[in-house]
Design goal:
Number of strands: 0
Number of domains: 1
Shape: elongated
Order of helices and strands: HHHHHHHHH
Distance between the termini: 58 Å
Strand content: under 5%
Length: about 230
Amino acid sequence: MPPLTLLDWIALAVFVSCWVIYALLVDRIPSIRARSVIAAMDEHRRRWMIAALPRENRIADIAAIGNLMSSVSFLATSSILVLGGLVAMMAAPDLGRRVVASFPWSAVPDDAMWEVKIGLLLLIFVNAFFELTWSLRQFNYVSTLVMAMPQDRAAIASAEAAARLANRGAQHFNTGLRSYYFGLAALAWIIHPLALIAASLLVLRELHRREFRSVARDALATMRVE
């Protein structure tokens, strides 16, 4: 069994709690989710799909979806590059530990702990890759639905279906992006368990601020009410 100290276990518990509890509260409780920037954008995507119904030429709509797909594709590709770097770090622990030793107050991990810490990062970015690629596929499906929607203002069901799929794609994109945030927090564990605790709390604070207290969220929520 890897030689995790009590401080390592505490830091890991704080990290997992920040990620899992935040995700459960924001994604699974409707009353909380309704106040987030994601919920505000869900309504705008619905309005977009309804507005696209009477348009004969939907090239602009497809271009907008393509722009969304390019952003998701960039992060999905980046996650593969990150995974390649992490595998290289797993294969060369001596070089990595020398880099960590150059930081002040760092706790240089032994071979077993190095594998555990890099293994955690691998799991995080594998999760990011799967979330982002599923988001990419859903946006691809949305483009098909948009082109297949009848040119009829009364075909609300078609627009609602496209909007639901677009919102699910955005939700998975947000989940993959959240993995990046917490992946950066997990990187701090390589330096010291206390660094992991501090980074986890900082990421949690920043996620909450951006999703619930940002200027962007307030602007989108105001537009939604009007």
